[in-house]
Specification:
The protein is of the alpha/beta class and 503 residues long. The protein has 17 helices and 18 strands. α2 crosses α3. The two termini are 26 Å apart. The model has no long low-confidence stretch (mean pLDDT 95). The structure holds ligand NAX and potassium ion.
Length: 503
Amino acid sequence: MRKIISASQVKLADSDCLVSENISSHELMDRAASAFVGVFRGLVPDKNTPIIILCGTGNNGGDGLAISLLLQCDGYDDINIVIIPTGHRQSDDFAYNMQRVKERQISIHQLERTSLQDFDGLGLRLTESVLIDSILGVGINRPLDRALAEIIKMINQQCKRVVAVDLPTGFRCEGELDDDGTVLYAHEVISFQRPKLNFFFPESAKYMENFHVVDIGLREAFLAELPSDYYLIDSADIEEIYNKRKSFSHKGNYGHALIYAGSAGKVGAALIATEACLRTGVGLATVCLPEEERHALYARLPEAMLGSSEELFEGVKYSAIAFGPGLGRRASFLSDLFKKANAPLIIDADGLNYLSKEDTLLNALPADTVLTPHMKEFDRLFGPSENWWQRLQLARRNAQKFKITIVLKNRYTFIITEKGEVLINPTGNPAMAIAGMGDALTGMLTSFIAQGYSPREACILGCFLHGRAGDRLRLEGHAVVLPTVLLTQIPLLLGELKNVPFA
Ligand SMILES: NC(=O)C1=CN([C@@H]2O[C@H](COP(=O)(O)OP(=O)(O)OC[C@H]3O[C@@H](n4cnc5c(N)ncnc54)[C@H](O)[C@@H]3O)[C@@H](O)[C@H]2O)[C@@H](O)CC1
Ligand SMILES: [K+]
């Protein structure tokens, strides 16, 4: 897992790198510039594209200058640099690179003061150029000065393509994203070493479209020591957590899941959750559906068993219980389930809605429970929040208080563990925004828990592979991904893990 670090920790990591490698800060800046250009070339392959580089006078601006030198060497032949004063003095690395740029044939426009009128007077071809934003990076320490904000608002109206260095100017790396704040909108952000935490919040869509992360060689061992509660899941975690199926193993080794789901008109939710559970490798799955709906189950999923409420817990020990998809009024069984449940619960959809109406039940949630709310379900459960930052902090407090895992679903799903850590899932895409997708995830999480993974491990595996399956189909050309189609990918993805699923 990759630790997400704060703006102030980035500076510590930069300093550590200079000392541990015995390099100068402008050498590190050259590295950052070179990593930036590596991605930029792919984004803007046409070397005749007019490029405007807006530089502040701190180190983010220094990056912009170093980038201009590399782009010129690369053959980009229409580069204009504009220097916008930020702060009272230039940083040393800015000044160093300014000297180098002056020795080259690159046009530099120096604003003597930050003013919209002066900026406008430069007559830049903003609409037809690619703009590189290196005005401010992690050094922002106050709301944008008024004159700078005015310039940025004008750029936002005119520029069609902006590539930001490290982060968009005006964007806060962590904490609440200010709704009224001015930010230079970036179509692409090329961020150094780690994405910034706020890239993962839905509100960031107002300020940026895509981001790329480039390695600038900061010391991973140093980053690992920095305190942080935020982590980004990556494919190495999946390889590490997933266990291959052993030879001589049988269905009894892979758990028995109970799926308590479905009601008249909503049987599909139960079928999707159960199919997901089976395709993720559970040994046995019992579904508790209304008796009159049983034919759908037999027709669609002959591998599953049907159970009725009365006999469910007679002599059966489940290893995980999913509760909620498509349940409707049947969700009132939740209070009884708490008394009878003999396995970790995964509560979704109507199960969550019932829980929010009977909030005394929250205190009675059994150990190892996983809740899988989307934003509205979360707000109904724990109360409204003004923004996603507040919502995430509320989730952390509740996960710790009730000793549960919360899977807060979104473009980037946040897995909040009972210790209050936040694990961010990077996979998934808008083609997956369709009914039944959450039921598929619930089935997958239930399957992994039934197979013996801890709730934390199961949520990492389930969320990542669910999104990855959708990403693969999107790449193959599916504009929309149906949950039942997504599920066909799961055994294939498991089969591809380095740790192949057979001994
Ligand atoms: N050795 C390093 O420290 C490295 C730094 N790098 C780059 O350096 C950036 C950080 O550089 P700095 O710490 O110099 O900070 P920035 O360049 O982000 O900004 C600092 C300057 O902006 C001014 N400023 C702050 N808030 C402002 C506001 N609201 N309105 C107007 N001016 C404002 C400050 O007074 C200061 O002069 C990173 O984002 C990254 O791009 C990279 O080159 C990697 C190596
Ligand atoms: K920037």
